[in-house]
UniProtKB/TrEMBL annotation, chains A, B:
UniProt entry keywords in alphabetical sequence: DNA-binding, Transcription, Transcription regulation
PANTHER family tied to this protein: HTH-TYPE TRANSCRIPTIONAL REGULATOR RUTR (PTHR30055), TETR-FAMILY TRANSCRIPTIONAL REGULATOR (PTHR30055:SF148)
Domain of life: Bacteria
Protein name: TetR/AcrR family transcriptional regulator
Boundaries of every HTH tetR-type domain copy: 15-75
Binding region for DNA: 38-57
Entries under PROSITE patterns matching the protein: HTH_TETR_2 (PS50977)
InterPro entries: Homeodomain-like_sf, HTH-type_TetR-like_transc_reg, HTH_TetR, Tet_transcr_reg_TetR-rel_C_sf, TetR_C
Organism, scientific name: Microbispora bryophytorum subsp. camponoti
């Protein structure tokens, strides 16, 4: 956790405001979809001033990224099963469940939208990916420390995550357990 | 070429209208971006009636797909170099050049947008992918007929196209020749 993230979650009143704002964003996303509401809408729903949101997050894009990352970390935490194959199979299955769930593609569309959305959007998208890649690399480093031969995080992105992401983004049907395990086995 | 496609390009006056409408769509995309214009805008620019466009294409989504496919087939035709490795390297390099060009990500964003855009959009997106996958499969079948051991079209999608698409959609920097050739070599 870097300085900026620590400063965002100091506990007490600040933590309550943060939780209210996250809740407001989650509700607005499910009602209107990503990108169809403003900082003013979030502030009104959360019962805080617009300025509080800008002070803490800096931009709507950074706030959306923070919410997406919190959601990913809660719902798809990095597994620690004791073996690389077990970790990757569990991780891939979690990601597949998340991106094919009821509001699953939303976080993918957010990542795509951020990249095409000016400097603040690109920065927010970069932060989101960098944090998830860092977590993934930790999981792979643990495998290396156990003496297993592990790919790097970009190998996992290219050959496990990217195929699943593209099939969901292009609406190409379900991600079956056989398909997901096949991606993992092929990479290993 | 199936019945419907044959009916769309009968030559003569019809072919001229088709060319004018394609040209109008290309101009509107470069001026406003995919999704930010209507059938009426296309008709006005092309100097034809709205009803001509609906009669020939059925929907804006189907028209956009036809334009995207024509563009892909013109600019990234399937290569025939005499070897599978040569074909895949050339094909991957062409796709990379296309999706990282000045208006390159547009066709990717179109494919993503179509999938999230109701029944007509999904059908148009399915048609676009089915046609490109059919062309890709022909290239792979030629390799098999020469006695080479070829992956199927879905293998190429998952392990060559998807990684490049995701890196472009997420704004993750250039696709270098080494990176692209590495994807091909790994699949083979």
């Amino acid at each position: 956790m870097d300085e900026r993230q620590r400063a965002r979650r100091p506990g007490g009143r600040s933590a309550r405001v943060c939780a209210q704002v996250h809740q407001a964003v989650t509700e607005l996303i499910s009602e209107h979809g990503y990108g169809n509401f403003t900082v003013g809408d979030v502030a009104a729903r959360a019962g805080v001033a617009d300025s509080s949101i800008y002070r803490r997050w800096g931009s709507l894009e950074a706030l959306l990224t923070d919410v997406a990352l919190t959601r990913l970390n809660t719902r798809s935490p990095m597994p620690d099963t004791g073996s690389l194959a077990g970790d990757l199979r569990t991780y891939a299955a979690n990601v597949a469940r998340e991106i094919t769930g009821p509001d699953g593609p939303a976080v993918l569309h957010l990542a795509v939208a951020l990249s095409g959305n000016g400097q603040q959007g690109r920065q927010a998208g970069d932060d989101l990916r960098a944090e998830r890649m860092r977590q993934l690399q930790s999981m792979l480093d643990r495998a290396r420390e156990r003496g297993e031969h592990a790919p790097d995080a970009f190998g996992v992105l290219d050959h496990i995550l990217a195929p699943m992401y593209i099939r969901v983004l292009f609406g190409m049907g379900p991600l079956t357990p056989d398909y997901i395990d096949g991606l993992v086995d092929r990479l290993l």
